[in-house]
Fold this sequence. Notes:
This protein is α/β, with parallel strands linked by helices. Helices cover 35% and strands 25% of the residues.
Amino acid sequence: MEPVRVGLLGLGTVGGGTVSVLTRNAAEITRRAGRAIHISHAAAKAYDAAGIEGLDRIERISDDAFAVVNDPTVDIVVELIGGYSPALELVLRAIQNGKHVVTANKALIALHGNEIFAAAQERGVTVAFEAAVAGGIPIIKALREGLAANQIEWVAGIINGTSNFILTEMRDKGREFGEVLKEAQALGYAEADPTFDIEGIDAAHKLTILGAIAFGTPLQFDRTYREGISAIEPLDVQYAGELGYRIKHLGIARRTKQGIEMRVHPTLIPERRLIANVEGVMNAVLVHGDAVGPTLYYGAGAGRFPTASAVVADLIDVTRTLTIDSENRVPHLAFQPDALSDTRILPMAEVETAYYLRMQVVDRPGVLAEVTKILGDRQISIEAIIQKEHLDESMFVPVIFLTQRTKEQNMLDAIARIEMLSFIAGAVTRIRVESLA
Length: 437
């Protein structure tokens, strides 16, 4: 049987890794796919040829990406350029030309996936995107196929390695956020502009995809709440540890009677949970299905070969389905396109969670009673109150509240009122708490 001919867009970190994996494991891949997979045409503006095994086996390399997607001999286009444009135009052109697509581009899928999947459905081609979420962890395949018998109740994931590295260093070594961020940039974990990582945008892209697959809804990135880790202080990491928690930057998608929660933010998790012990740049996703219960998926969330592993796995999957009628393939978002439900995505103000609150208060009798009254007036029940020792010679002491679950709007109203009290110094630090039970 003739080899499947692949057009590759991008020869950077993941593109080069994809070439190397296809070359190194060619015999095994052929055994699994049923036919050889060969890169016949590649496009890249610049690349490090010395670091790519098998580059000499590519028939043609140019800097014209559109020449690749318009090449009539190419069966599958692999888009590894990233970003929104020209990636979107290239993917849509490839689909229009009747080519299957494999991509690792989470931003593209999260923002334009609905349009891309509709075009692919109409043209009868497949768009595979396993590498777009959690690098080498096959979480999309697990949600879409392995857990297909379940009604997914919730998904919670550490899905950005940069944020997890920073929080791990802050906990283990008591370091400041800014100091660890600089080290993450020096190590190549964070970009020169780290906004996407530390402010939750990257994680929100990934959670948008996971939520759509878990609950059978259209992709709705604009309704995914996101909050970053730049305001987390070493004190909060320390106090969380003393209380038996660890702070992680979580993406959480949960089905409720009122609608679907889609949120990314720092979260206190009980330290006994497996996901609380995921360290450094590693990723992990916890999925709770009604039949199977909780399942945990752990591994490298980024990197040359872990991500290439997912790209090549998608190439093998697409190759296996080339002769299958398009209506009998696994749907892009797990559910049949005409069965997607436009379930309401809850605004953050309506989401219920527990909270960790830290505030600086004047050390005198009656102060805590006023704070607890404000919380009680808004139906916020208190789980615990801890007063710490003076941090310096000032008259203020840190006080930590752990609350039971309440609506976000109740908490926002309470914090606004507390911050107006004359004996409260500065802003109240608020971090959400999840038991993940």
